């Protein structure tokens, strides 16, 4: 083995720039060109929205060092979605430097400009433009310097590969490193500089392999759990038996008397500390703890009836026309209820944090999507002044919305504070399944009206248990209403444990309900499901993705169920329209579903990294098959019953369908995030494909074998397949 | 019980004193500082902790370190030789066969063992061989392609 590279206690993340405050950092980085940023200065939507209420935050977006190296600073985190590559591409292109010369410094509250968090597909549409502006500003400074240096007018100069040259005499040139040497130039981004036009782009839009790939295939990439600091101990927490359980009594004497172990109790938090994490874990069963456990109100089967029966009045979030009038205009009414259970994020990296106090200041390494959010949580919950908290998010082993609440990091900081030692806390897989902020279970009731010409005339859409993301009506329906209910009449919480965003929050359930219902209406009208959608749709971008997917798939019209096992679904997330067409095979005896082929068309505007974008589509389809077919958290009250990968079934290699991706060419449209939209249609497209294959309509996710068999048993003669 | 345990680790002899019941995973990650081997579930169900022991892929989270006395252990850190990536590593990078990268060391070593046993697997054999390694980001399509391509590459190299 190569001992040199894995010395305990070494920390080389962010090139060893540690531990400085950001002001000290700015002073210490020496010469070069530094493009600074003040929150709120920028004209981007995120800058405006996120800047409010924040103190001015002086920090750099990028620095070109005296040796010509470029450092890019971003509060965004690399979770696997590939922004370490796409942001580097973005900056390299505007700045005209080779991609390899860019050093990405990410997710460090001491070094990076404030960022609200890596979620909601916001990196590409909101941070991307700011970074392009910073790159363009730096390039403009270099051109100015070169004009003086070469004694050539600015507009006669161009730049490529970190060299400025005279367009009329290319041998007259100067490198960025030569221009920067011995200088220190700070520029604040106050107005947006002119960025390149699409035709001037060289790196944006070209496929590029991930720049973190070599570190990740060699084991060098550091995640939070890989960081070691001197004197550190590992913690394992005593997981309560149920959510809402209160610790009644605790006997730790069996562990206390063994040398090397320390048990800490802080309120309901109980943890064992030891120099080895496995030994700490082995000690947990020796602790005797008694809890008061609240009575279960519902379980994974009764949850849907419970929340509908006890729902408070909903809030109308969108409407057009008059729903009652609309229903009167209908020839046929279609009414249906759609259910979706709780799902886990189940990232392969469990929540991990390392907290180290030094001179009253704490440094926290954490697997988090929100390093700045965690910094503020520590200030508000543990009363540590914000300037004394530094959070660093190294590589994160998957997020999907699950690494936002930072429970493990708060626990680690408490334990480090009490034990006066650096503490690394790694949630066990069972802890992860227990403490995860699940995607909420939800019910969607839809009542809609159909005219005899196959037009949707009314659409009454009622959501219970979650929000309306993805429910915005994009079909042409003159009379529609969307109502959201997230509270119970008696004031109890709607869910018995924490819920939170899960890759395209709400939208997976909303798109499953809507697209299933559209299919039910198409079948009722006796119209091909693609044609039915296009008949009720004028949105050009949505029509564009539907047609592109249909063309790629080779769709031929047939009314459902056709027996072919072809299904279609479309939707919109973060302003990205997406359409999926699938082919499935259903085993009539076992109820098992094999997805054979999926075509995805999406319109994400200007594509930064086509290869990265395709990878995200494939990831969405694979992950989406999980929530569509098997993933569901079983529970009784606050007790979580599925605490391992043996009980909670993730997609596997044998599920892999043929996946084909169409990225709509829309270079003049701003770049948008593509890591969430394709997943929203996976439940709907598989449900519709199962219907087309069998005539059985699945109304509940996940579509387990048992549910598929039950739905097939309920088929009426009306839905008999063509012979 | 603490005892002296000696084995070959990535081509070098290693000796350490440890409770032989401790799992190989945590001995690698703590005592030996090799953090490329990942903890994913602790029950041998996800494959993130896969290492090679005497040419076979094993789940290091369920293997007692005492059981590898005198054996040869290969971890992800030992796969590249003299700074040159192994063809499987090359193929994973070239095919973008990873996203968050947390399952990647286990995937690569499981594929390594698969190709040792069966240098020219069919797509179906690759799928069967990789079935019990979990990836949450959904890089499966690319992982299959990478293994297919590495097997071709390794065939060329003889």
Q: Enter the CATH topology name of the largest domain in chain A.
A: Aldehyde Oxidoreductase, domain 4
**Oligomeric state of the chains in view:** heterodimer
Total domains of chain B, how many? 2
What integer is the average pLDDT of chain A?
A: 91
Q: Roughly how much helix do the residues of chain B carry, as a percent range?
A: 25-40%
- Output the number of helix runs of chain B: 5
Question: Which architecture of the largest domain in chain A would the CATH scheme give at its second level?
Answer: 2-Layer Sandwich
Biggest interface between chains: A-B, 68 and 65 residues
- CATH topology title of the largest domain in chain B: Ubiquitin-like (UB roll)
Mean pLDDT of chain B: 96
Which descriptor suits the 3D outline of chain B?
Answer: globular
Enumerate how many helices of chain A there are, as a single number.
19
What class would the helix/strand composition of chain B place it in? alpha+beta
Task: Describe the protein.
The complex is a heterodimer of chains A (723) and B (158). With 723 residues, chain A is of the alpha+beta class. Chain A folds into three domains: 3-218, Aldehyde oxidase/xanthine dehydrogenase, molybdopterin binding domain (Aldehyde Oxidoreductase, domain 4, 2-Layer Sandwich), CATH 3.30.365.10; 226-293 and 351-426, Aldehyde oxidase/xanthine dehydrogenase, molybdopterin binding domain (Aldehyde Oxidoreductase, domain 4), CATH 3.30.365.10; 303-330 and 438-719, Aldehyde oxidase/xanthine dehydrogenase, molybdopterin binding domain (Aldehyde Oxidoreductase, domain 4). Helix content of chain A is 28%, strand content 23%. Chain A is built from 19 helices and 29 strands. In chain A, the strands form seven sheets. Chain A has a seven-stranded mixed sheet, with helices on both faces. In chain A, strands 14-22-21-20-15-29 form a six-stranded mixed sheet, sandwiched between helices. In chain A, helix 3 packs parallel to helix 4, helix 14 runs parallel beside helix 18 and helix 17 crosses helix 18. The radius of gyration of chain A is 28 Å and the shape is globular. The model of chain A is unreliable at 1-20 and 39-57 (pLDDT under 50). With 158 residues, chain B is an alpha+beta fold. Chain B folds into two domains: 2-78, Beta-grasp domain (Ubiquitin-like (UB roll), Roll), CATH 3.10.20.30; 87-156, DNA polymerase, domain 1 (Orthogonal Bundle). Helix content of chain B is 35%, strand content 17%. Chain B is built from five helices and five strands; from the N terminus they run ββαβββαααα. Chain B has helices spanning 24-31, 87-94, 104-117, 123-130, 140-156, and strands spanning 2-9, 12-19, 50-53, 56-59, 72-74. A five-stranded mixed sheet of chain B has the order 2-1-5-3-4, sandwiched between helices. The model of chain B has no long low-confidence stretch (mean pLDDT 96). At the A-B interface, helix 6, helix 8 and helix 17 of A face helix 1, helix 2, helix 3, helix 4 and helix 5 of B.
